[in-house]
Amino acid sequence: QVQLVESGGGSVQAGGSLRLSCVASGYTNSIYFMTWFRQGPGKEREGVAVIHIGGGSPYYADSVKGRFTISQDNAKNTVYLQMNSLKPEDTALYYCAASRYSGLVRFSPRLYDYWGQGTQVTVSS
Q1: Distance CA 105, CA 54 (A)
Q2: How far apart are CA 65 and CA 100, in angstroms?
Q3: Which whole number is the average pLDDT over 95-101?
Q4: pLDDT of 4-33, one tens digit each?
Q5: How far apart are CA 118 and CA 6, in angstroms?
Q6: How far apart are CA 57 and CA 5, in angstroms?
């Protein structure tokens, strides 16, 4: 089992920045991909950014490219999401997810085995 705990959410004005953290514990050696998803009010869940634990180029949703950066600190079993130039449409509950699938997962929720409880991000105009 793997447990994921997110933190770092909050309320900011448009144009501001936040950094989210996701700490993984448990049998983390089984994980290949870590991903941030989000679900805004009245919207479906969507993938934001994914990173392979072994390295390689991260993958981003078009809506956040150039503004968000996903990174990892393997020594701390932590994945980060640096969010800059935030917009009101970025308002959502942000989830961290982990996949044991070694193939291409991108943003397919069914390929993720573990999910955190989420951290709320609210961006005001």
Answers
A1: 14
A2: 25
A3: 96
A4: 999 999 999 999 999 999 999 998 899 999
A5: 6
A6: 24
